[in-house]
Amino acid sequence: MKILVINAGSSSLKYQLFNMDDESVMAKGLCERIGIDGHLKHTPLLGDKPVFNEDLPLPTHSEAIAAVIDKLTSKEYGVVSSMSEIDAVGHRVVHGGEYFSSSVVVDDSVVDAIEACIPLAPLHNPAAISGIKACREVMGDVPMVTVFDTAFHQTMPAKAYTYAVPHQYYVEDKIRRYGFHGTSHRYVAGRAIEMMGGKRGLKLISCHMGNGSSITAICDGKSVDTSMGFTPLAGLPMGTRSGDLDSGVLQYLMNKYDFNIDEMLNILNKKSGVLGVSGISSDFRDLESAEKAGNELAGLALELFSYDAAKIVGSYAAAMNGVDGIIFTAGVGENSPTTRKAICDYLGFLGCAVDDAANSQRGKEIFINTPDSKVKLMVIPTNEELVIARDTQALVK
C-alpha cells in the first residue's frame, strides 16, 4: 500500500509518500509561499532521479496538490507511474476538540467538526481543511484519513484537563486543556518504550521543543498531562508564543495601549516567546550564536526557556510520583545539546546525569545519560508522518 501524507500550513504544504510494505519513504517535498508566489522542492528517494527545486505559481492549496501529484507521477522526477498507485492520503490536523479521540476516515461530518474547531486553532485548522478540500478536488475518491494532534491527550484525567473556572464553561463551551503535538509525543513515547526494553508502566516525560514547544507526562504509553492547553499558546515560552502568562497582563496592556483582543493575541502568538525576550530571532541557533557574541538578552531568552522547561518536567515527575525516562525531540530537542544540558542540570534532584560526549550528538536516536543516572535521558527524532501513514493504513484496510 502506498500512502501520501499531507501536512498543510497556512502558506505551506509538506508531504511524504510512503511504501507501507517496508515503511520506506519514496519521495518527500515542501510547497512554500502558497498564495504569494510559490516554490516547490520535491525530492525523489528512489533511484537516481533529480531533485526539483524551483519557483512555481501556487495561488491556492489546490494548485499545490496538483503540482505535488504532477511531480510524483512525472517521468523525470516521479516515483509512481500514475495516481492509481496511491491508495490513500493521511492528513495532519492540529485540533479535533472533544470530537475525536483517535484518527478517522474523512467524510463531510469530519470536515464540519474540524471547521467547528477553528476558533480553538485559528492558525492551523483552516490550513488542514484547505489541504483536505484540495485533495478531494484533485484526487477524487481516493480515501483520506485525518490524524489529530489533540487525540493522544484525550486520555488525560479530568484533574489534568479541567480549568478552575465556572464549570458551566466546560459544560457549555468545552473550555478545557486539550494539548497538542500529540502525534509526535505518541511516536517518541513508543520508541522510548522499545528502547527501554518494552517494559509496562513506564513513566516518561516527552519534551517536544521547536518553534512550538510542549511537554507531556506519559504513563504506560498514555498522556496524563501536557503543557499546552485550550490553544497552542499555553505552556512553555516558544519561538514567537508567550506560553503561560498572568491573564491580568492582557487587561493591563490592552487598557494602556488601546489594543483590541485580536491585536493582543497577535502579540502573544507572533511577537513574544524567545523572539520577544531577545529582540533578535525566534531561531534558537541565532540565539546561541548571539549569546556567544555577548548578547545578554539572547542569553536570557535561552535561560528562561530551559528554566521553564525544567520546572514543567519537575512538576510532571511529581504528578506521576516518579519518572523513568525523559525524551528530547523536535528541532531544538534533537539538535541543541546546550539546551538539553541546561534543562537536565536543573534535574539533578531526580538523579539525572548527562553524558557530555553522547549529548554532543545531533539528530540521532541515542541515550545521553551516564551509566549511573537514575533516569534514562533520550534523544529521539520524531516521525509524525510515519504515525499518520500507519494510522491511515490501518483505517483504510
Can you describe this structure?
By secondary structure, the protein is an alpha/beta fold. It has 2 domains: 2-148, ATPase, nucleotide binding domain (Nucleotidyltransferase, domain 5, 2-Layer Sandwich), CATH 3.30.420.40; 197-379, Nucleotidyltransferase, domain 5 (2-Layer Sandwich). It is built from 15 helices and 14 strands. It has helices at residues 61-73, 108-116, 125-139, 158-161, 168-173, 182-195, 248-257, 261-270, 273-278, 284-292, 296-319, 330-335, 337-345, 356-359, 384-396; strands at 2-8, 13-19, 24-32, 39-44, 52-55, 88-93, 104-105, 144-148, 203-209, 213-219, 222-226, 325-329, 366-367, 376-379. The strands form 2 sheets. The protein has an 8-stranded mixed sheet, sandwiched between helices. It has a 6-stranded mixed sheet with strand order 11-10-9-12-14-13, sandwiched between helices. Strand 1 and strand 2 form a beta hairpin. The mean pLDDT is 95.
Oligomer: single chain
Beta-strand content estimate: 15-25%
* Principal-axis shape: globular
CATH superfamily name of the largest domain?
Answer: ATPase, nucleotide binding domain
In total, the number of strands is 14
The helix-and-strand class reads alpha/beta
Count of all domains:
2
CATH architecture of the largest domain: 2-Layer Sandwich
Fraction of residues in helices?
Answer: 25-40%
Q: Assign the CATH topology of the largest domain.
A: Nucleotidyltransferase, domain 5
Strand order of the largest sheet: 5-4-3-2-1-6-8-7
Sketch the major β-sheet: 8 strands, mixed
Mean pLDDT: 95
* pLDDT < 50 runs, ≥5 residues: none
Alpha-carbon distance between the termini?
A: 9 Å
SS element count, helices: 15
Evaluate the radius of gyration. 21 Å
Q: What's the CATH class label of the largest domain? A: Alpha Beta
